[in-house]
Amino acid sequence: MTVARPRVPVRFLASVVLVVGVSGTAAACGDEPAALVEKAGPAGGWQEPSSYAYTLRSGAGERALIGTFRVTVRDGKVSEAVGLDDSGRRVVKELPGHVPTIGELLDEVEQARREKAHTAETEYAADGHPARITLDWEKEAIDDEALYVISAYEPLSGGTEPNG
User: Fold this and answer.
1) Rounded distance, CA 60 to CA 136, Å?
2) Which of 93, 111, 140, 149 is most exposed, with the fewest beta carbons within 10 Å of its own?
3) Quick check: 127 and 103 in contact, CB under 8 A?
4) The CA-based dihedral angle spanning residues 82, 83, 88, 91, taken in that order and rounded to the nearest 10 degrees
5) HEC states along 45-61?
6) pLDDT tens, residue by residue, 62-85
C-alpha cells in the first residue's frame, strides 16, 4: 500500500531555503561592528581623513560592487583594494575603480536622500566613523538595495587631516 504524501509547493520550499540561508549568513558574519550608535550622524560629525584603511562588506541588490574588500585610502583616493572573497576578488580584477572610499559611500547616501530614496540610513560606530549604510532606492522595486558594512577602520599615519 502506498501512502500519499502531501505536496509542498516549490515556492514554499524556495522561501524556506532563502530564509534559512540568509539567517545563517547573517549569523556567521563576525565582522559586524560591535556597537553602532546614532543613525542620523555622530555628534560633532566625522571627518574623513586623507589616509586610512577599512574592510568593506558590500551586499544586497544586484550591483557590480558585491563582496568583501580590504581597502587602503591614501591622499583621499583608493590606493589599494584587495578582494577577501570570490566576489570581491572578481570586482578588484574586473572593475578595480568600483571600490569606494568611505567618503564616496557617504556621497551615495546623500545622493539617495536628495533623490528621496525609500531608505538612506547611516549608522556610526562609537568613535564616529560610519559603520553601516543601508540604501533602498524604491520601496516597491526589488534588487535596488545596497548594504555596506564598514569594519576594521583605522586611520593611517599622515592621515589625520580631514579629506576635502
Assistant:
1) 10
2) 140
3) no
4) 40
5) CCCCECCEEEEEEEECC
6) 788 899 999 999 999 999 999 999
Q: What is the dihedral of CA 81, 83, 89, 94, to 10 degrees?
A: -20
pLDDT confidence bin for 39, thresholds 50/70/90: low
C-alpha cell read off for 104: 564616496
Three cell numbers at 68? 568583501
Q: Using the 8-state DSSP alphabet, how is residue 10 labeled?
A: H
Helix (H) or strand (E) holding 137: none
Number of H-type helices and E-type strands within the chain:
3, 7
Amino acid symbol at 102: I
> Which pLDDT tens digit goes with each residue over 90-119?
999 999 899 999 999 999 899 988 988 888
What was the pLDDT predicted at 44? 55
Residue 138 to residue 117: CA distance in whole angstroms: 6
